[in-house]
Amino acid sequence: MNKLMQFLRESYTEMTDNVSWLSFKEAQDSSILVLVASVVFALVIGLVDLGFNEALTFFYNAY
């Protein structure tokens, strides 16, 4: 039990003193960047999928 308490104390100290946390503004900016990148990536993948779908539909309907 003593080792568990020591581990918890050391973990708390590590999280409060040694970890550098983002500010709210930095976290917000990073989140917005991830959101925009995800939307752009989804649109690109969607357009590629639509293109393949149209190409295969044209190919299969030609015969």
TrEMBL record:
<keyword id="KW-1133">Transmembrane helix</keyword>
<keyword id="KW-0472">Membrane</keyword>
<dbReference type="Pfam" id="PF00584">
    <property type="entry name" value="SecE"/>
</dbReference>
<feature type="transmembrane region" description="Helical">
    <location>
        <begin position="32"/>
        <end position="52"/>
    </location>
</feature>
<keyword id="KW-0813">Transport</keyword>
<dbReference type="GO" id="GO:0008320">
    <property type="term" value="F:protein transmembrane transporter activity"/>
</dbReference>
<dbReference type="GO" id="GO:0006605">
    <property type="term" value="P:protein targeting"/>
</dbReference>
<dbReference type="GO" id="GO:0006886">
    <property type="term" value="P:intracellular protein transport"/>
</dbReference>
<protein>
    <submittedName>
        <fullName>Preprotein translocase subunit SecE</fullName>
    </submittedName>
</protein>
<keyword id="KW-0653">Protein transport</keyword>
<keyword id="KW-0811">Translocation</keyword>
<keyword id="KW-0812">Transmembrane</keyword>
<dbReference type="InterPro" id="IPR001901">
    <property type="entry name" value="Translocase_SecE/Sec61-g"/>
</dbReference>
<dbReference type="InterPro" id="IPR005807">
    <property type="entry name" value="SecE_bac"/>
</dbReference>
<dbReference type="GO" id="GO:0016020">
    <property type="term" value="C:membrane"/>
</dbReference>
<dbReference type="InterPro" id="IPR038379">
    <property type="entry name" value="SecE_sf"/>
</dbReference>
<dbReference type="GO" id="GO:0009306">
    <property type="term" value="P:protein secretion"/>
</dbReference>
